[in-house]
Amino acid sequence: MSKCEVSMKKGKYQTAARRKGNPVVFVLAAVVLVAMIAVLLLMRRPEKQQAKLPNGETVQPSDAVEKRTDSIAIPGYEGISLKADSKEQEIGFPNPAQNTCYFQISLMLEDGTLLWQSGLVEPGEISEPITLEEPLAAGVYPNALLKFDCYTMDGTMRALNGAATKMTLHVS
Length: 172
Prior knowledge:
2 domains, five-stranded mixed sheet, 1 helix, Immunoglobulin-like, single chain, 32% strand, extended, alpha+beta
């Protein structure tokens, strides 16, 4: 119950309520303020860093290439360079634009130790930059394995033919 003051002015009663702020208005104002701050923060957020391709390659845009449903193009590498003592790397691997399947790419040492595995990479796209499971010490790692698992894009995620290529990791 709110406190009211009653006064008489020229034969009429007037009621003046001491109003406290309406809590609904304050809640709505707070929600609007939080939403505005969130929008501003999202607009200022830096874009994800695009992974660099090994050996300075470039990826062709998907619309500039004829799609091939009868084969899967797998990129090959003799070797790649990685940063020593760092999980975060700058490179990623492409799924060539002519493909009609997803890639999931894995990088392993000769003994089968998994160094990294990508998410699904669409045709014409590059994987996120590599984040190694564990940093590698400087050195040369021969016979590392770059494995490409391929999956249909029709919603069934059926496994297709894949490939695995040996290469040398140059870590410095």
